[in-house]
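REVIEWER CHECKLIST
Item 1: Sequence provided? yes
Item 2: Single chain? yes
Item 3: Sequence as submitted:
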Amino acid sequence: MLKGAKTGVPLWLLGFGAVRLRTDMNRLLSLLFHQGVLDEQFLQLQQLQDQSSPNFVSEVITIYFHESEKQLRNLRHLLLDREMWDYVKLGIHLNQLMGSSSSIGAKRVRNICAAFRGAVEQNNRSACMRALEVLEHEYCYLKNKLHELFQIEQQRVLGDAVRYPGVVHQQ
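Item 4: Structure as written out by the authors:
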């Protein structure tokens, strides 16, 4: 990490890395769209964020992660219950996860939920187990990448907020 010679403070904190951080954010978002991880609904979610609610997107995503992890736990529990195979409950949890994933633009997670639901409708337990593994993997990938995105955003916001007299800031 580059630091100012006299202060020892990271350059992004002095405002020098704002352009680089914006570029990093845009590059990561572009990658996630290109990979099909996110869709245009995520952009619509971002447009709802403004000065009055500067943390709107991260708060919505945090709620999504909390609720999705409950749904994933419920799905795993239902699939591992050897005595009681409840396809109706599986479908309910999948529909909830699919709906919340759609609302934040989590395209690949939503698509995997739809495929998983197909396996549920066919009463195919082994296909359901495989679908759950893929779903958990994709969910973790999404969570890690959005966490990375929010860390970059937080650094950018901090860099934009910190101003020192006599320091020329790049924008």
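Item 5: Key structural point noted by reviewer: The longest helix spans residues 125-161.
Item 6: Recommendation: ____
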